[in-house]
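Tokens as discussed.
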């Protein structure tokens, strides 16, 4: 280090030309990332240090430091930066109960991130969504199904969440911890899971038992075992301090107990919450807020507040050396990623853009979609026998909704196929009739269906003629289109992507022409939803005419446009005849935005009538119902019955869809229900009356194929629920109660509609020969358990073997869960094939947390149950005794 300081001092005296020729220590790849970062930070001015501490770190030309944005999203595919491989939403990935698959998905996400980053650097792009610091996974515990962001998590169980989160982090970062492919950022640390409308001001005081038993274990696994290079602190306060200013979380636990060496980033705007009057009111102003964040250990500010850090230093609120610590962590991460090295020195820098959406990546997405399917009920109707059905009615708002495939924080798929279209292909011998059937909830908009559009006034097909134009000054639509095709409906996500290969993503126009026919005469409300584009800085405009009369004309300003839903407009139809319609759309932006969905708000009851009519003439009904990421999600401006600000006020199936199911049931036709949602739904009527119920989540770009293959038996489902499906919201404590009493399968005292870990198959499995390696265990020793699983059915299938620990009911002051998952394996077996599975439980797996938050292995009589679900008649049970006690480190 002495040599480095001397070199640094000498280099500071060199003329600029000579400095450019010299190899400075931070450019020397033979030094450690920490040494290089220390040298580079020593050369920065105070103002430069402050600028580098926000997520949009600017370039420093005099030192050859390129601009870098720490914000990138990779929850289930690299998001918002053009086409990428789209996997099922995180809750769907959790339903696979397949940890090795999650590691493969993480590998694909970071490989595509590198492909995009390498291409962006070649084009001198250093923007948001093109970096290598991935703000995923979300490993908050989904403690209450009303939380709209629960779809982003791996469910309600700390062990399942920790196992899947660990695998995803390892996949993202790659096999070499010192040279990661990308840096993972588990979030939101900690005790965060709604409500959305109070997240900036809520203070949570969890019991010490709940904190250490439920809210922290999965974070510990990703940091201690996974060596995640970053972590994101949450909006909420904990024990009176904002999470991003919490010494308990960021110093005592994260750095002292878990020996975390990486950097902490704030959630976006979380530092602002320190001083804003509508939030925590923890700090009097920006200067105090910034100092509090840095001193607590929040290294990156997503936002701009840290730009005032020079004033904080000058006011004596912190020392410049405190800021140096922050900057060294950030630059160490960039050094480890190889961002200051010659491209030839890193194999990751050679990843070509062709790896984006590579065939193997798409195949993995399809596999993940299939593995996420959870069969909840089957009276024998499934797998469907296509020869039995001449006319099939596919109904419901999710049969042809792009949003219901994507979920939120999503990658941008290329030409995804709607579920109704995949079913139409799969049921080749049948006539498939589609009816939208119901809005998600009365008053909520949904895409205008293809059935309302016609290519010709008489005859023709459902859909519109679509002409795609490259951007140009003047009238973009005056020239010849670059491509012409037919679009079934106007429902597209082109965020930072070209809609077709023939046009450029930065500047293009689309003209849709044809005819629109209303289902009944009257006044109808419409709107255009733009692709989610925060921050965009784009220009969007559209115009709608009907019978030559303008009914809507809208354009955004050339700055950040943060509202995705544009002003609503009305069209009055005097009849149900086709009327000429033209929609023109122009997108112009250097990188982001792009995409349009034409939505409508149908009158209450109208669509249900159409569904009932379709069912009466059908031999089979496939009802595709559930929720939408346009209703459940992050801090949304939505308030209709059952929904509030992105969260739900009730967990039952919305009344509009329930009415549709009941109307369809009057036909007496067999019905299979497909649920598509990001959180648990209470749909007891479907369980009681439908012939089959399949949970499909928000299944990604191959979701339609996964649904069709599962319904028809080309794929044998084996997904398991990662959350409890309760019967009613009355089964739950208050939403803002963070206590775990009567929450999740571990503490719930009632009878759920479907339990955590539940899922059916088209074959059967039996368990036998369960045994523990020892029946008398000394506290602190591991326990090995074996069991044999046999496919006792007539077709090949996958099974998820689940191991649960049942601690003594009277031990630990009654605080311990009644049962807790401590192992699982997903396996494939042929008919008649048997396999012996081995599980090993560590001292931590066998431990309990007391009322003071201390974790220890405690003496007593224990049981272990192994089966394809929670303990039941099909499970194998092993009893054993633990003697003595053993303290387990935090």
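Sequence:
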């Amino acid at each position: 280090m002495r040599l480095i300081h001397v070199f640094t001092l000498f280099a500071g005296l060199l003329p600029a030309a000579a400095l450019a020729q010299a190899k400075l220590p931070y450019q020397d790849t033979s030094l450690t990332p920490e040494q290089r970062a220390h040298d580079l930070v020593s050369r920065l001015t105070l103002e430069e240090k402050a600028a580098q501490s926000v997520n949009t770190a600017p370039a420093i030309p005099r030192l050859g430091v390129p601009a870098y944005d720490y914000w990138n999203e990779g929850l289930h595919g690299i998001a918002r930066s053009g086409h990428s491989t789209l996997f099922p939403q995180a809750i769907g990935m959790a339903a696979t109960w397949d940890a090795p698959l999650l590691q493969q998905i993480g590998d694909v996400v970071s490989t595509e991130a590198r492909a995009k980053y390498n291409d962006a650097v070649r084009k001198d792009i250093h923007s948001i969504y093109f970096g290598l610091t991935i703000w995923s996974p979300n490993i908050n515990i989904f403690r209450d199904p009303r939380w709209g962001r629960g779809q982003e998590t791996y469910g309600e169980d700390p062990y399942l969440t920790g196992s899947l989160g660990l695998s995803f982090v390892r996949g993202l970062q790659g096999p070499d911890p010192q040279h990661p492919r990308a840096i993972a950022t588990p979030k939101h640390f900690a005790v965060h899971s709604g409500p959305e409308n109070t997240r900036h001001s809520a203070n949570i005081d969890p019991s010490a038992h709940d904190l250490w038993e439920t809210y922290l274990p999965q974070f510990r696994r990703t940091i201690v075992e996974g060596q995640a290079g970053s972590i994101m602190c949450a909006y909420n306060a904990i024990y009176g301090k904002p999470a991003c200013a919490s010494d308990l979380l960021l110093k005592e636990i994260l750095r002292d107990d878990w020996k975390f060496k990486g950097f902490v980033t704030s959630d976006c705007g979380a530092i602002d919450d320190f001083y804003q009057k509508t939030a925590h009111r923890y700090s009097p102003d920006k200067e105090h807020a910034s100092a509090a964040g840095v001193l607590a250990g929040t290294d990156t500010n997503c936002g701009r507040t840290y730009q005032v850090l020079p004033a904080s230093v000058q006011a004596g609120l912190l020392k410049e050396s405190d800021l140096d610590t922050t900057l060294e962590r950030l630059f160490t991460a960039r050094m480890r990623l190889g961002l200051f090295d010659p491209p030839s020195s890193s194999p990751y820098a050679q990843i070509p853009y062709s790896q984006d959406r590579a065939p193997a990546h798409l195949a993995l997405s399809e596999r993940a979609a299939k593995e996420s399917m959870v069969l909840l009920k089957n009276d024998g109707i499934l797998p469907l026998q296509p020869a039995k059905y001449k006319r099939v009615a596919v109904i419901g708002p999710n049969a042809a909704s792009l949003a219901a495939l994507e979920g939120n924080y999503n990658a941008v798929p290329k030409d995804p196929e709607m579920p109704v279209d995949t079913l139409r292909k799969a049921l080749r011998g049948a006539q498939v009739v589609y009816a939208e059937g119901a809005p998600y909830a009365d008053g909520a908009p949904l895409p205008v269906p293809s059935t309302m559009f016609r290519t010709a006034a008489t005859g023709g097909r459902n859909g519109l003629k679509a002409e795609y134009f490259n951007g140009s000054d003047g009238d973009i639509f005056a020239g010849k289109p670059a491509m012409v095709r037919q679009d079934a409906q106007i429902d597209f996500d082109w965020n930072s992507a070209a809609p077709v290969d023939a046009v450029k993503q930065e500047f293009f126009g689309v003209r849709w022409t044809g005819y629109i026919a209303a289902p009944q005469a009257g006044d109808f409300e419409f709107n255009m939803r733009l692709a989610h584009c925060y921050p965009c800085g784009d220009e969007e405009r559209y115009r709608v005419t009907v019978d030559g009369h303008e009914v809507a004309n809208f354009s955004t300003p050339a700055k950040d446009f943060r509202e995705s839903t544009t002003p609503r407009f009305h069209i009055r139809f005097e009849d149900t005849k086709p009327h000429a319609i033209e929609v023109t759309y122009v997108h112009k932006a250097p990188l982001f935005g792009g995409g349009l969905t034409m939505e409508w708000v149908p009158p209450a009851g109208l669509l249900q009538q159409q569904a009932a009519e379709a069912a009466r003439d059908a031999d089979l009904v496939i009802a595709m119902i559930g929720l939408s990421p346009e209703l459940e999600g992050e801090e949304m401006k939505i308030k209709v019955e059952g929904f509030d600000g992105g969260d739900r006020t009730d967990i039952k199936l919305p009344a509009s869809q329930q009415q549709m199911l009941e109307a369809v049931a009057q036909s007496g036709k067999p019905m299979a229900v497909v649920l598509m949602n990001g959180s648990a739904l209470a749909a007891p009527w479907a369980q009681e009356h439908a012939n089959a119920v399949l949970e499909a989540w928000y299944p990604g770009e191959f979701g339609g194929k996964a649904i069709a293959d599962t319904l028809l038996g080309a794929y044998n489902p084996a997904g398991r629920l990662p959350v409890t499906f309760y019967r009613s919201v009355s089964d739950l404590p208050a939403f803002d109660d963070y206590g775990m009493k009567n929450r999740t399968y571990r503490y719930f005292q009632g009878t759920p509609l479907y339990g955590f870990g539940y899922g059916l198959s088209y074959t059967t499995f039996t368990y036998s020969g369960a045994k523990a390696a020892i029946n008398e265990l000394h506290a602190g020793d591991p326990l090995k358990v074996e069991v044999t699983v046999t496919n006792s059915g007539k077709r090949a299938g996958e099974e998820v073997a689940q191991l649960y620990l049942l601690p003594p009911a009277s031990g630990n002051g009654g605080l311990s869960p009644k049962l807790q998952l401590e192992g699982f394996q997903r396996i494939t077996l042929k008919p008649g094939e048997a396999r012996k599975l081995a599980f090993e439980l560590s001292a931590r797996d066998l431990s309990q947390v007391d009322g003071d938050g201390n974790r220890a292995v405690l003496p007593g009589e224990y049981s272990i149950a192994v089966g394809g679900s929670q303990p039941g008649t099909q499970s194998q049970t092993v009893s054993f005794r633990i003697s003595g006690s053993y303290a387990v480190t935090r």
